């Protein structure tokens, strides 16, 4: 169906009709979604969606009211741009969302969110974020001063690497907040500081993070929609249902029943230095994200100009590799272990609150946990990978 003008004909639709417009199957060229009972045709628009084509397409054929509220700061302005996409609304006899969603949970969550907003609990403390940035910059300077003053012998070299690894981890948590547009009331300021922190302080592209992380929040732990679980099935068997399915299909890319052992080798220590480090350059060049590339280069230029005179070529390359190794272990344990132990499956189109809750877990709050995890406080479940690996092995051998 063509996208209509500013005053589209107000047709009435059923959920059955909408559910067929997912961009797959018989209506492969059509993508519809619902926001506040209004039906929008995003068949062409999804390619121009500022947040990315995939994140909006993951809700094709579904109600997207709650994710729309969660992802957009100025909802009134965004809805003006959505007017040309409006093709109708739900028929009067249709519920406001699909039967697969818990009506009571949806209503309670929306009431809770409205209450929290009225109480001002979502207003950011910008002083906190400023202090967080200042402590990152201070650690960055301290790392350079350590080698400049004490020399490049083993102890100051390792101490400087530890400080720089901390800088990378903490900058990762800080860019996460700006990337979520959580600090400033205007999106442009969030985007600008986000590019500075992730690009200049970390050497990574903001567009790459947005592309992956927005999908993750839209459909956490939903296989083929959340990029964070794309390690299934090539490296790991994740989730009870997916692991059994893999075993029944007699697929074996890795010895999954031993994945709780080899995770420590190919997971935390390797992700950043052996994969992210080169892939981010491929990403920005392939997608022609030249502004992000420029920001990334400022990090490497600054790093080499400040450390090359102190360490030489071999020393600076070794330092960079060690810093990425420290960052990788820190990053993976925080970001993966608060999701991998939880429910992982195909998208079942459940309500927003349940989607988020069943895919994550927390740990007890403390000043150290808050700082170490960037307020993504997690709980490590040591046996989770082993459990799914054993489920795969049982299905592989006996089903």
UniProtKB/TrEMBL annotation:
Pfam families: Cyt-b5, FA_desaturase. The chain crosses the membrane at residues 128-151, 262-284, 304-323. Residues 10-91 form the Cytochrome b5 heme-binding domain. GO terms for molecular function: oxidoreductase activity. The gene is FADS1. This is Fatty acid desaturase 1. GO terms for biological process: fatty acid biosynthetic process. Keywords: Fatty acid biosynthesis, Fatty acid metabolism, Lipid biosynthesis, Lipid metabolism, Membrane, Transmembrane, Transmembrane helix. Pathway: Lipid metabolism; polyunsaturated fatty acid biosynthesis. InterPro entries: Cyt_B5-like_heme/steroid-bd (IPR001199), Cyt_B5-like_heme/steroid_sf (IPR036400), FA_desaturase_dom (IPR005804), Fatty_acid_desaturase (IPR012171).
